[in-house]
Amino acid sequence: MTKDRNGNFFEDFRVGMKLRHATPRTLTEGDRSLYIGLTGSRAVLATAETNARRLGLHARPLEDLLVFNTAFGKTVPDVSLNAVANLGYADVRFLAPVFPGDTLAVESDVIGLKENTSRKSGIVYVRSTARNQHGADVLTWIRWVMVHKRDAQAPCAEAVVPPLEAVVSPDRLPRHDFGAAVSNVTALTGVMDLWDDYEVGERIDHPGAMAVNDSDHSIATRLYQNTAKAHFDARAASAGGGRRLVYGGHVMSLCKALAYDGLENALTMLAINAGSHVNPTFAGDTLVCATTVIDKFDLGDNAVGGLRLRMIGAKNVDAASIVFPDARAGRPVHAPDVVLDLDYTIAIPKKSATWSNR
Amino acid sequence: MTKDRNGNFFEDFRVGMKLRHATPRTLTEGDRSLYIGLTGSRAVLATAETNARRLGLHARPLEDLLVFNTAFGKTVPDVSLNAVANLGYADVRFLAPVFPGDTLAVESDVIGLKENTSRKSGIVYVRSTARNQHGADVLTWIRWVMVHKRDAQAPCAEAVVPPLEAVVSPDRLPRHDFGAAVSNVTALTGVMDLWDDYEVGERIDHPGAMAVNDSDHSIATRLYQNTAKAHFDARAASAGGGRRLVYGGHVMSLCKALAYDGLENALTMLAINAGSHVNPTFAGDTLVCATTVIDKFDLGDNAVGGLRLRMIGAKNVDAASIVFPDARAGRPVHAPDVVLDLDYTIAIPKKSATWSNR
Amino acid sequence: MTKDRNGNFFEDFRVGMKLRHATPRTLTEGDRSLYIGLTGSRAVLATAETNARRLGLHARPLEDLLVFNTAFGKTVPDVSLNAVANLGYADVRFLAPVFPGDTLAVESDVIGLKENTSRKSGIVYVRSTARNQHGADVLTWIRWVMVHKRDAQAPCAEAVVPPLEAVVSPDRLPRHDFGAAVSNVTALTGVMDLWDDYEVGERIDHPGAMAVNDSDHSIATRLYQNTAKAHFDARAASAGGGRRLVYGGHVMSLCKALAYDGLENALTMLAINAGSHVNPTFAGDTLVCATTVIDKFDLGDNAVGGLRLRMIGAKNVDAASIVFPDARAGRPVHAPDVVLDLDYTIAIPKKSATWSNR
C-alpha cells in the first residue's frame, strides 16, 4: 500500500511501452501572459489578436515553445524523473497551432533502449505526442535521455537504437494553411525581410541579452508542471557543491525571444531538427544568441517558405563572439560558455505572397 | 481630515463587530496560471477543462488554496495589519467550488478577544466568510491572531474565548455534488489509489522539494492583495536583523502542491481542521513535506469519501526525517526545521464509485 | 542584407518623422493577474467585475499604468534603444479605458530635437499615441530622452524644442462618462473620503513599503515587451561596475499601488502632468511614497472631480521623511534616496454624486 512515487528507472522501460502522461492540461491567455512575462516573447502571430486576423488566422495561437515546454513537462514524471542528463531532441514537428482554451494530452512510446557499459544507467529513446481535445496531433518529438538504473545488476533487454534523421526533410514538414494575407506581416513588424531576403550561410547576431533569475526559471518550470528536482531542490544542489540547474526548455524560450530581432516576420516553428543543451545555465548568467541560416526550403507554397536555422545560445559573452562549429561530422565541439545548439525550421512569408496579393 | 491608514489595534476590536473587507475580487484564468507558475500545482480537477468534464463538472474550479489565500488576503488590512503573529486556523470549510470569473466578497465577525497579561497585545478571534457574486458562501474560516495594542494602558472588554473544535466533524463537512463520473479520475492521473486504498496511520513521504525565492513569494502574496508588511518591507526586516517572512499561506500552497505525489486522485479540500505556522520560512529555504492519514470518513456518498490528513512541512531536510509529534495533547512540540503543521480533510473517489459505474 | 537591429541614433531622427511601433499588443485578464502579482494593485475599478458594474461601467478596465507601460514598451526599439537617459514626461492623458481583449497599436511623432553641446548625444522629443482596435485613441503622451549619436561628427538639423505645459489644464483633461453610480464606491472600499474631503496642501504618507526583486522587475519589463538592455543585461551592468536598472515605469506602478491607502476611492488617472525618475532603483531597494494634494479641479461634472497630486517615491527610508521640494521654479532638488517625482491628476467621486443619487 505504498504511495511512494519514485519514477521509472532504466530497467523499468521496455521497447514498445506506451506511457500516458498525467494529466491533460488546458492552456489559456493566462499562460500566454506569464510566458511573455517570463521570456519577453514578441512573436508577431501571438502578440495581438488583430495581428492573427490580419494574417488570415481566426485567432492568435499560443507561442510554439510554450506548447513544447508544457507538453515536455508532462513527460518528466514517467520518463526523466531519474535522468542523469537530457541528451538530445530529433524530429520535433509542430503539427498544428494551439489556441487558448485548448487542452493537451501527452503520450509517449518507448522506441529505443541502450544500457551504458558501466551498467549504472542507460539511454531511453521516446517518441512523444501531444493531442488536443479534438484528438488532433499538435506536436510530436523524439528525445533521448540518460536514466539511472535502480540496480546496476538488473538485467536489461537487448539494445535497440532507433534511426534518427539529422533533419526533418521538407516533405515531412507540417503544412499550416497560411494564405496570401500573411504578406501583411511587414506592416505589423515594420521589417521588410522575408523568405527571399535570407541567404544560406548568413549570420545574425541578435542584439539583446537576458539575465536569468532564480525566480524566473522556477516560475517557468512550474508553469510547465515539470517536476524535475534538479531545477527546484536548492538543498540537494548545494549539498553537491552546485546550484539549481535552469531548465533547458526555458533557455530555449529565452534565446528564441532574443532571436526575434532579425527574424521578426517568422510565423511559426515547423520543426526542431536537432537540439542539445551543451552546458548548464544558472541564475545570474546573462544569455545572448546568434543564428546562421543553414538551408532554405521552398515548401511548394506561394505564401510561405521554410528557413532552416541554427541558433547558438551562450552565457556571459558577446553574441558576436559565438563560434559555429561544424555540426555535420558528429558531435560539435563547443566553447564552455555555449549553453544551447538548436537546429530548427521556421515558416516565413515569401515576397511572392506580396506579389500575388496585389 | 487625516488619511492615515494604520489598521486596527487590539483595543479597537469589540466582540460582535462586523468587518466588511475591501474590495471584492474577481478571480480569472490569469490568476490560475500564475498560481500554477508560483506553486507547481497539478490538482487534477483544476489542471484541464477536459478533466473537470470527465469528472462530471461543468467547468474546472480554481485551486482551493488560491481561493483561500485570496479571501484571507482581504482580511489583512482590517484584522492583522498590526499583528504580532498569526496563531492558528480552525473550522475552515470549502463550501462550494469557485470558478474563473467568480467574484469573492469577504466579511469577518469578531467572535473573541483576550488581552495578554503583558497588556501590550491581545488575541483577536474572527470568523471570516467569502461569498460569490450570487451571494452563496464559498469559504468560511476561524482564525486567531495576536495583535498589538496602540496603547498598553487602554482598557479592554472582558475576555471572550470562542469554542474551537479540533476537527470539522463529518456531519459538518461540505457536500459537493460529485457523481459517479469521478471514478474516471484514475484514467486521468494514471494512479489507482482511491479512498479505499488509504489506511489510517499510513505515512506518505512526498518526493518533491521546492526552493523558495524572494520574488516568488512576493508575487504570490501580492496576487492575494495581502498587504502585511512583514512580507514586503526588506528595510524594516533588515533593521531588525532579519529577513522578509514568507507568507504562511504560500508555504501551505507549496506543500499542498508537493503533496500531489501520493494523493493524485484528491478532488477537493473539504476542510482545514487546524493549522499552524510552526517556524518562519525565508527565501533560500527548500521545502519538503510528509503526510499521515489521521482518519477516514464515509460521507454517506457512493462516489467520494473523506480522508483526514496531517501534512507537516519542513525546510532544508529530507521528507523522511520529518517527525509527527502527538497533536492530541495540546500544542505539539516540533523540530526547529518544521514550518507547517496542517490538519485537513479531502474528498477522494471511492472504489464503490467505480463499481456502481460499471 | 544585414539583419542588424541597432535602433535609431540621434542623427537618424528628423522632426516630423512618424514611427509606427511593432507590433500591436492585445492585453487580457492574464496580463491583469500578472500586473496584480507584480505590483499588488488594489485599484477599485479593476479589482472586481462586480465593482465596475456597481460603479456604472459595463466591464472592469485594465489598470492605468499597465496600459501606460505596455504602450511605452512599444516605443523603446525605435525611440530609446540607444538612450542615455529618459528625461521626462509631459501631457500624458488617459483618454479612454482599456478592457481585456483590447489591442493597442502605438505610433510616435518626432516633435523636437536638440543636439547636446558635447555633440555626442542629443535630446529627442516624441509625442506617442496608443489606439485600440476600433481606432480610438486611448492614451497619448510626450516624453523626451537623451539619445547617443552614432557619430559625434554627424551633422544635425537645427534645434527644435516643443512647448511643454507644466500641467494638463482642466479643460484638456479627458472626460470619462462616469455617472451617479460612482457614489457606490464607498461601500466597496469602506472608506468615506471623496473629492470634497481632500484639501490642497494636504499630505498623505502611504503606510506600505515594497522591496524590489530582480525577478519581479524583469518579469514586469518583459511583460511590457520593453527591450531596453539596461534592465536585462547583467553582464554589461556588472562590467560597468553597476547593477541592472529597474525600469522606471515599474517604479511608478509600485508607488501607485502603495498610494492606494489614502486614495482608495480614486477611479482613474486622467493625466500625468510631469514625471521624472530622479535616481535609479535597484533590486534590494525597498520603496515607500508620500503624496501631496497640489490642486483640485471641478470638472463641471456632478459625479467626479479632479485631484492634482504629487507623489514622491523614495528608497530605504520612511515615507514620513520624504521632503517635497518646490517644483514651480525649475527642476527641484531631491535627496539621493528619492527615485520618483510624479505630478498626476485623478478622477474621484464627489459627495454631490452621493446627494444626487439619493
- Shape annotation of chain A: globular
Largest sheet of chain A: 12 strands, antiparallel
- Return the average pLDDT of chain A rounded to an integer: 94
CATH architecture of the largest domain in chain A: Roll
CATH class of the largest domain in chain A equals: Alpha Beta
Number of strands of chain A: 12
Oligomer: homotrimer
CATH homology group of the largest domain in chain A: Hotdog Thioesterase
| CATH fold naming of the largest domain in chain A | Thiol Ester Dehydrase, Chain A
Report the portion of residues of chain A in β strands.
25-35%
Note the run of SSEs of chain A as H and E: EEHHHHEEEEHEEHHHEEEEH
Distance between the termini of chain A: 70 Å
Describe this structure as you would to a colleague.
Chains A, B, C: It holds the Pfam family MC_hydratase. Chains A, B, C: This is Hydratase. Chains A, B, C: InterPro entries: HotDog_dom_sf (IPR029069), MC_hydratase (IPR048274), MCH/BMMD (IPR052342), Thiol_ester_hydratase_Rv0216 (IPR016790). Chains A, B, C: One of its GO terms (molecular function) is lyase activity. The structure is a homotrimer of 358-residue chains. Chain A is α+β, with helices and mostly antiparallel strands and 358 residues long. The first copy, chain A, has 2 domains: 1-27 and 62-164, Roll (Thiol Ester Dehydrase, Chain A); 172-358, Roll (Thiol Ester Dehydrase, Chain A). Chain A has 9 helices and 12 strands. Chain A has helices at 29-39, 44-47, 49-54, 64-79, 185-189, 214-223, 234-239, 248-258, 351-356; strands spanning 18-20, 25-26, 83-94, 103-115, 121-131, 137-148, 203-205, 210-211, 268-277, 286-297, 304-315, 338-349. In chain A, strands 1, 2, 3, 4, 5, 6, 7, 8, 9, 10, 11 and 12 form a 12-stranded antiparallel beta sheet that branches. Chain A starts with 17 loop residues before the first strand and ends with a helix. At the B-C interface, strand 2, helix 1, helix 6 and helix 7 of B face helix 1, helix 3, strand 8 and helix 6 of C.
